[in-house]
Structure prediction request, 392 residues.
Amino acid sequence: MRPHTGLVVLAVLAGTALTGSPAAAVDDDGAPALDITHWLPYGGVNLWEVPLASGDPAFGRPQLVTSLVAGGWDWGSSRTEAGDFGDVSGVDDGSPDWLISHRQPDGGLLLWVVGGGPDPTPHVWEDLRTGGWSWEHSRQLVGDVDGDGLDDVVSVHLNPLAPGDLQANVWVHRSTGTGFADPVLWAQLQDPARPWRQPFFQIRYALGDVDGDARADLVSTDGGFTFAGDDGVRHVVHLSTGTGFAAAGPVAGGPPTEGWSFTFGRELLADVDGDGREDLVSSRVQRGGGLEMLVRPSVGGAFAGTAQKLTGLYAGGWDYFLSRQYAADVDGDGRDDLVTQHAQPDGGSLLWWHRTDATGAASEAPVVIGVLSGGGWNHWVNRATVGHAQPV
Ligand SMILES: [Ca+2]
Ligand SMILES: [Ca+2]
Ligand SMILES: [Ca+2]
Ligand SMILES: [Ca+2]
Prediction:
């Protein structure tokens, strides 16, 4: 392995007086909600929550959580993820919490947390304005990587060693229930055969529990299944050991001749067969038009080599480029379903439910479960992530 110039991190948590009660154990089995961050035309963002549990009286109907306007909040300088970090506000009702990674004027970032429940005041849980941290050159993922029941934050950070020699440093900001602990380096990722690959642009990252041991694992996806220059997909699992991410496991994926494309493809981790292990769901452009979704089931610490088609949507205006997909067990049967947010001609979007059928290997015909239209809704200036309600 090459020597590296790892980021020197100075943890600066002074001044963030943090209080809260001990955290309850949590998992992803609670009622799902789509947490949406929406751009505001006069600056700032709105946080909305759409209940995705079919038994909820407010199923599919957006509820405003809070408006973040004063103080420099900016849609384009922030990223949002849902999670369960603890009793953030002291009056947490178990609704999903929010992580907002916000760019700072010096290029660094702050990790803000908004708790679930009646007090949506944002709290700084980690100050990463010094120590070489860059908002632009990092991405934050959320998952319980150490299996203690509280979601943690994982920062994947670009670490350029030399031109064409790029590494991704993977840092874990463990949730203590009342804050994030000092970041700890869990892995340094680089494919020695393709060291020029640009994290985030030529490599995507996701967190999910692939082997079912209750610790979220890191999955990276890049192109070049057959050779480095093709536009297929390759998925690599890095299992969590509880204190680090293990070296790359077996590669799953496919070549462009089978319709796979890193450029025109997206991934989700979702347990569609309900066996407790998260499977890899791919959305891609369908040959002949429309959108299709496929799954590579988890077979333990890796994904199956053969993908099964969950659904193909040709007619009726379905479009890969006009849609985004999420995973949520809408009917609570233990199998994750897929939800699509699809742009509409009026500029808003519809939420569609693709229910996973009893085989766990196919989606039923989609039905509309929510309307995000009128009232300033704009498909192109919002982003969403699925959180889960938890007992407190
Ligand atoms: Ca944890
Ligand atoms: Ca795991
Ligand atoms: Ca599974
Ligand atoms: Ca389901």
